[in-house]
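anyone seen this seq b4? input:
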Amino acid sequence: MKIESVFAKAKKEGRGVLVGFVTAGDPSPDHTLDIVSALVSNGVDIIELGIPFSDPIADGPTIQASSLRALNAGITPPNVLDIADEVSSSLNVPVVLLTYYNPIFRMGEGKFLKLASKAGVSGVVVPDLPPEESREYRRIARKENIDTIYLATPSTTPKRLDAIVSATRGFLYVVPLYGVTGAREAFDSYSKKVVKDIASKVRGRVPIAVGFGISKPEHVRSFVAQGADSVIVGSAIVKTIERNLSDRKTMLRELGELARDLSSACRNGKSV
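predicted toks r here
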């Protein structure tokens, strides 16, 4: 399933798109499909699977801990591609991979993207791979029909934003604050202004998805009201998993409740 079709459908329905992040293989490989199914059946539109990495520089303690649990469970990049294949073939939802560049480099760009395409992956986010250094990567990704998703931050200049938007397919991942991932209690007016400014500069050239710290329905409503087409929720999902490591039934129930609340906020955020 293509990312663009999800955004087109949501736009027609007058709502935002909900992206849910899960570290693949956390806490064990056999949990992931159940976790993703609970999220999708309760309103998550796009699944972002994180490839566990030993040095995730953009991630805070919550996602770092999830990566460590997955690595300790024996998860490797090929295992994640197998999980992506299982998700994409079982559920009618686009799968986006989030990975640092090192696993791609070790596997080889061509091999990685070809295997990702075979696994039904719709897009890839590589936080430490800038557009200037990824022309060949993008060429191969286009050949494999995979969207290359870049990030924009508060420090992104208008000129650089224009270059990033020109290189981005699928959606633009907007980070509305300085720092690393991690669920936040609230966002200040500065973060809201960052999203509003980027949205006005992008002007619909590519959908905007806001991530890093979103954990509550009021966060979702606020950013959608500022012009975001989508929100990405990661740490709140991962914390729910972490809180229920020994109780899968409760874990899945709480994940479903969280997804429903966030999805509902995506639907009414446009009117805020």
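Residues 3-263 form a domain with the TIM Barrel fold (CATH 3.20.20.70). The longest strand covers residues 17-23. kinda curious what u guys think
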